[in-house]
Amino acid sequence: MDIAPRVEKVPLPHRAARKMHSSGGFCKLGSMQPELARPAAPALTPPLLPPSELVGFGLLVFAFATLITIHVALAYRVGRLGSRWRGLLALLVPPVAPLAGFLLGLRLLPSLWTASAVGYLIALARALS
Predict the structure, then answer these.
(1) With contact defined as beta carbons under 8 Å apart, do 60 and 124 qualify?
(2) Rounded to a whole number, what is the largest CA-CA distance in the chain?
(3) Is the pLDDT of residue 93 over 80?
(4) DSSP 8-state class, residue 124
(5) 10: burial class by Cβ within 10 Å (0-12, 13-18, 19+)?
(6) What are the pLDDT digits (tens) for 22-70?
(7) Cα distance between residue 17 and residue 26, in whole Å
(8) Is the pTM of this model over 0.70?
(9) What is the secondary structure of 55-110 as a DSSP string?
C-alpha cells in the first residue's frame, strides 16, 4: 500500500494535446483547419529575350564599361600631368576630360574616350529603338 496521496497531472495550456499536422508540424487539437486543395504553383522562369536583344544589351554594357574605365584613367592622367582641380573637374564633368587631355598633349586617351563615347551612344540608340 502506498501512503503518499495520489496527485493528478493537470495539462498546462502550452502543453495542450497536440496532433501531427499533414505539413509536418504540430498544431493544437481543435484548431486544425481542413486542408484545401491548392493548384500547382506556376514555374517562375523569366521570359527569354531574343538573341538580337541580348547582343544589343551586351554591347551597351560593354560600351558603357569601356567609357567609364577610359574616363577614370583620363581624369587620373589629367590630374597627374596638370593641376589637381583640373583632374577633379575632368572626373566630375565628362566632356571636360578629353578637352583637358588634348590641351595637356595627350592623344591616345582622349581619342579612345571620344571613340568609346560615340560607340556608347550608338549602342544606346540601338537599344532604345
Answers:
(1) yes
(2) 112
(3) yes
(4) H
(5) exposed
(6) 555 555 555 555 555 566 667 677 778 787 888 899 999 999 999 999 9
(7) 10
(8) no
(9) HHHHHHHHHHHHHHHHHHHHHHHHHHHS-HHHHHHHHHSTTHHHHHHHHTT--HHH
